[in-house]
Amino acid sequence: MKELLLIVAIAGERVALPAAAVESVVELDTLIPVPRAAPHVAGLSALRSRVLTVIDCMRSLELGTTDCSDGIREAAVVELDGHHYALIVDLVEDVVEALSEPAPIRAAMGTGWERVSQGMVETEEGPLLLIDVAALIAGAEAKVAA
Amino acid sequence: MDDLIADFVAECREMLEALGGEIVAWEAQPEDRARLDSIFRFVHTVKGNCGFFEFPRLEALSHAAEDALADCRAGRRVPDGALVSAVLAVIDRISELIAAIDAGENMPAGDDNHLIDALAHGAESVAVPVLVAGDAATKASVAPRTIRLSVELLDRVMSTVSDMVLARNELARRLRESETDVPVGGAFERLSSIIAEMRDAITRTRMQRIENLFVGLPRMVRDLSAELGKQVLVDIEGGDVELDREMIEMIRDPLTHIIRNAVDHGIEKPAERLSAGKREIGVLSVSARQSGNQILIDIHDDGRGIDGRKLVEKAIASGVISKEDAALLTSREQLALIFEAGLSTAKEVTAISGRGVGMDVVRSNVERIGGIVEVDSRPGEGTRMTLRVPLTLTIIPALSVSIGNQHFAIPRSAIEEIVRANGESVRLEHLGGAGVATIRGRRVPEVSLASILGLESNVAEKDRTLVVLRPAGGDVYALSVDRIHDHEELVVKPAAPAVMATGLYAGTTLADDGSPILLFDPAGIAEVGGVRLEALDRSARIAEDSTGVVSKATPVLLFRGLDGGRRALRLAVVDRIEEVHGAAINDTAGQLRVQVGEAILPLAGATATDIPDGKVRLFRLNDGVHEIGYAFAEVLDFATIEHDVIHAERPGEISGVSLINNEPAELVDAHWLFSNHVGAAARKPEQRVCLVPVWDPWMQNMLRPLVEAAGYRVIDDPEEETADLVIASLGEEVPEDSGGKTIWLRSEPEASGKKDQSVYRYDRAGLLMALKSTGGGKAK
User: Fold this and answer.
1) CA-atom Rg of chain B in angstroms
2) Count of other CB atoms within 10 angstroms of residue B154
3) For A116, B146, B200, B709, which has the most beta carbons within 10 A of its beta carbon?
4) Does B496 contact A50 at a Cβ distance shorter than 8 Å?
5) How far apart are the CA of B450 and the nearest CA of chain A, in angstroms?
6) Can you give the residue range of the structural domain that contains B185?
C-alpha cells in the first residue's frame, strides 16, 4: 500500500504532508487571536461546531509571518491528540502517491525545515520533503524546551 | 469469534456490577428468593457461555457455584455466612478472569480448588427445608430496555446537533434580514423548538444515573468492615439522580476515599459503640440530590466524629497554621483543617485509609471539577461530608467581556461582583505601577486585562468595568475590562496544548454566531498578571461564606425605585444588574415579566403603568433556585444597616424602615418578593429566640427578616443560648439539646408523604403558621 501525500506550498516551497493525517482542506475567513500564545499560533477559527487552532506554518518554520489580514486563507485541517488544527499554507496543490520510503536528506537544510523534516520521498513529481505534522504544530518553542 | 467474546465480557461485566449490591442484600436476608435467583442466573449464564468458549477455569468455578446455589433454591441447603463468603470469592475470581479475557491476555494459570471446596463445606450440614416466605412477592427485576452505544457515536451526534443549532442561528439571522411571510416564520419557529428539544435529549444521553457509582458501595463497605471487625449498615438514597458520565468518573475516587475514611476512622468497633450508648451497628448513609445546577452528595456516619481541637493541635504541631491564627478559627474552620495537607487524626496509619492519600487530595480533586467539599461533625455523634459538584463538566455559566473588539468569557463561579471603575464607591490608584482598587473601603489588587493580554484598549481606564474575581481557594482581585456583555451558558471544550501553555485559558467555546471564544482561568490570569494570592485564606475556603451574620451591620444596596422611593435590598440577594429595553417587559400570565436574554423572569418593583419606554435597569435577585427581576431607577450607594429597623405592620414588599446614611430608607423584603412572585402567596404573622443556620445564606438573607418580623430574636450559634425554635432545611442535623421545636423546610412545593411535616420554603402562610404555633407551644 503506497502512502498518499498531499502537496502543499509553504513559504513558496512545495512540501508533502501525509494525506492520511489531513482531514480536510478549508478556507479560513475569521480568525480570533489568542493573546499571549506562542507566536506560531495564529488564532482560533471554527469549522462547523469545532474549534480549530490555527497554526501559521511559516511562523512555525521561522520563515516569517503569513499575512492573514487580507481575509481568506487556505488551510489543511489535521487532528492531533484529540485537538483539531488548521495549518495555514500558501496553496494546496494535489494528492500524489509516495514512490519510496522517506530517506534522510544529507545536505544541510534551514533550521526550521530541519526540525519538521521526516525525510525525502520520491513521487512522480520529483523528490519532496515530508513534513512531520506534530513538529510543525509544536513550533519553535517546543524545540527549545526539549 | 472476537466479537462474541467481547459481547460475553460486556454482558458479564454488566451483571457483575448489578450483582455487587444483590449479594450483600442476600447475605442480610438469605431467604430472599429474588436475590438468590439473580445470583444463580449470573453463574448459570457464565457457565453456559464459557463452555462454548472453552474457558475451563471459568466453567469449573461457575459450575460449582451453580450447584451450591441450586441446592439453596431447591431448599436442600440453607444459605449461611460461610456460603455467602464462598460464593463471593467465586464471583470475585470470575470477575478477575473476565478482566484478563477482556485485556486479551491468556487465561492466567491458577488453582481454584480451594474456592470450590469452600462452597461444598456447608453441604455437610443437615439439609433443613426452608420456607420461602417472600416467594409470592418475588418480583423479577425487569431489565430496562437498553442498547450499548459507543461514546464516540454519542459525541458525534452531539456535535451534529451543535452544528444544527449554529445553522439554525444563521438561518434566523437571514430570516430577520429579509422580509418573510408568516407561514415561513411559523415553520421556522417549529423547527427551532424541535432542535432545542433534541439538544436537550442528546445532552441527557450523556447523563448517567448516579446509581452506577453507588452500586459498588455496599460491597466495598462490607469487605472493609469485615476486615476491620466493625459492623456497618449502608443506607443509600437518591440513586436516580443523574449526572454527566464524565463527572461520575471524576467523583468516584473522592467518594470512595471519604467512605473508606468514614468506616475506618469514623465508625467505632461494636464494643466501643455499646459503651458509648449507641447501637453496635454503625450507620453510613450516602445520599444524592440535585439542587439547582449542582448535585449534592452527603456521606454521613454516626461514628465518633472529628475533634476540632485535636485537629488544631495537630495543625499547629505540623506547622500548618500559627497559634495566633488557630485561636481565631471558628469551629467550622477548625474542621476544615482536615483538608490541609499532612493532617490525619488517626493515631496510626491503617491499611485502609491513610495511605498517603489525604483529604487534601480529595479536596483538590473535587475543586478541580468545580466542586466543593464541606465537612460538619459533632464529637461522639458523627460526621457529615458533603460533596457539591456541578451537573456537568462541559456546560459552564459564564460572563462574556471584551477588550477592544475581542470577546472573552469568565466562569461565573469565580466572579464575586462587578463594579464600574468610575462608580461612587470605587477608587483606582497606582502604587509603583501596581493597580490598587478600593471598593467600598476594601483594597484589592487590580490588573488590567488589556495589559495582561498585550491588547490595545480604546476605553479610558476610568470608564472600564472591574470584575472582582475570587479564584478557587485564592484571594480576591479586580480585573479591569473594557466592557461586559452577556451571561451565557457555554459549552466548553478543552483548548489545544499550545493555547493552554499560556496558562491564561481554561478552554474554548463557540458563541451563538459560531465564532470561537476563549474562556479564562481566573487563577491563571492572577498568576500571569503578577497578583500574589494569599494561599490560605481559610474563611474563603468555606463554601457559602456567610455574609451579614452580624445583625448590626447587614450590607445593603441603596437605590431609588421607579416611583422615586428610597429603598434598600440586602446585597447578598442581588445577583447582578441588567439593563433591558422597556419592550422586554410584558404583562403576561397574570403578572409583569421581563425577558432577559433567553430567560423570562417575574418582575417586581414596577407596575404596568410606570415602565419607561427607553432602557430599564433591574436587579436580578437569586435565591439559589429561582430568579426574579426588580426594576429600579438608579443605584445610590452601598451601605450597611446600622440602625434599628422599624418593622412594617403588614407584610408586603417593604418589611420595614431604617435610617441608612442618615436618611430613612425602605427595606425590601426579599422573602416576600419570592413568595409572591415565585411560590404560593398568602400572609399574616411575639420575643422568642430562634436558631437559624448561619451557613445558609438563603436562611440568613431571606428567611431571617421574616422570622424577625414574626417577633423572634434570631441567633446563629447553638452554644450561645437555648433556642425556642430551630429552623433547618430538610435533611440537615439540628443540635439535640436545642430543647425547643424545629421547623423543617423543604425546597419542593409538594410534601414527600403524609408523615412529612416540613414546610415549603416559599409557603409564607405555612411558615408563619409554624412560627406562630411554635410560639404558642412555648407559652404553655
Assistant:
1) 30
2) 14
3) A116
4) no
5) 10
6) 151-205
